[in-house]
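Re: beginner question about structure tokens

> Can someone show what the tokenized structure looks like for a real chain? I only ever see the sequence side.

Sure, here's an example I had lying around. Input first:
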Amino acid sequence: MRLRTSRRRRVRGAVHPGPVLRFVSPLLVLAACTVDPTPSVFRATSPIVDGVLERGEDAVVLVKIAGGIASCTGTFVSDQVVLTAKHCVQTDGADLPFAPNLMTVGVGSEFRTTTDYAVRRIDTTPGSYRSNLFGLIGEDVAAITIRPNRNGELPDVEPLAYRRESPADLVGEEVTFVGFGRTDTGGSGQKFTRTGTLNRIDGSVLISAGNICQGDSGGPMIYEGSPRQVVGVASFGRSATGDACPAIEDGHNTIDGHLGIIDMAIFESGGCPFEAPEVCNSLDDDCDGGVDEGCAALGEACSVDTDCANAQLPEYFGVGLVGLMENPVTCGDTPAGRVCTVPCDATRPFESCATVENPFGGITPVAVAPGLCVATDGCQGTCVALGTGELGLDAPCTTDAECGTGACIDPGDGTARCLPRCQGDAAQCADDEVCVAAPGTCGACVAASRFSGAHGYGEPCDADDECRSGLCVGDRCSQSCTRATDCPLSGLCENEVCQPVPPSGLGDPCRDDADCPEGRSCVGEPGVCAAGCTGTCAVGFTCTESWCIPDGALPGEACSLDDECHEGRCVDEVCALPCADGRACPVTLECRRDEAGLAWCLAPVATADDGGCAAGGSGASGALFALLALLTIRRRRLG
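And the corresponding structure tokens:
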């Protein structure tokens, strides 16, 4: 997916900072510059610019930077979103806002006693600005999204409404100002309020006089209508004598020109800023708790993009925002016809069509009705409706949708069969398989016993010359490396050679301490890699006899339901982990396929030498597969 690159919005008639600096010196920026207060700061003897000490107005909050070394004011406009000024969350010269973990939002009336909430996300107008607000006049708006507290609770605050229409009709009306800014005696950190008059509007800036000071930045200008509405966000002031307050002229940004930022933040947090008929745009327009009801699901027929669920967010969200996904779901031509679709990874035919990217640019994907990734160009594919998948592993086929593996492939012998799709040297086949593909190209997993060519990374071997790399480590083909990222599957680079089989992780089965991460032990019977404890463990583990032990059954242990397993699924009454997708199995298990062709980490099958039955490999063809000329690569042995 491509990220939408936002263009800077032109502001018609905006106040230009040049005249401000030329005729009024200096420009007093109401910035995030209130230093951690001393005891004298909190004497409420001198309200800001003749304001009144405010114990109410719970929606107006303190925006703290780095624990409070600097601060601004903000306003809750939903249960999680705080409206403030851009220069409170992004320093001059920077291209992006501060990291969210550097900021907190304090609910209360004074600095020392606020209840603070962590910040999860910050959205602002685009681009950087210079000192003294060059490039920011009329654009000085930001939305902060908070996290619940440790108990999962949000502040018990009634948000203020914000005006969606032009405030032109409010010129001359009385308005209310609330903030934590500096008083006329130099103190700050307490909430004060006062009333004043909206004198005029210059472009996107509301002008009043003598109402706000440093630290009030980001605070609201409130029109006392029905309902009460935030109509502006405090940005700057002009002072005739240095940085003295009151300013002779105050500037607040209008709200109506920045609805995309505010609405987007509220929708992203799960809120609903306004109610409208439901359309296909990745939003809960009608505020009923559902998104895009009645829209075509992934793989369903469509005519245009706006027929599809999880389609493009409203265009006005893109004004000033960087990071929104472009076209998360589109209506496109596929092997199954014109349907709602997204690009996908054909080596993960089911998993890559079970979610779509978060349209708000978040890291958490959005779950959708399961689909099937059909290959269109090598390992790249497009999602269509889930097929029947009735044909088992190695069955003759004509389309991907027929196969339980999600792929119908001719591996090179002239017969298309249901086989797992793989990428060469990506360790995407089961333990007894090889990928018939050159490194980086797409092919199929077939039984190693039916393949005559050299094996790729992570595939079985007995000697170096059986591997394309000339490196056989243990019983797996390896490759040289300089860093951990050079080693798929394990992420272990030791002595410039990848170790194909990683140690077991915490909660994984093990044989002895050597199977576990450094500093962890193999405890119990059967063994499990565990960390020591004194009473508390991570979620899913219980402190038992001084060890954090998994609550559920381990991979390879008996089960009847998925919920009984510590991780993975219950497959044929045994807990199993998925594999053959670049993930390695714990050392006591092996990666094998079921009859449908899905790969799982399971206990090794007993062989004839163990007094049991011999296990056959996947792939029923009696002939050895010959490598195409494309795959003829010189093999190297270590000297």
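Each token stands for a local structural state, so reading them left to right follows the chain. Residues 509-610 form one domain.
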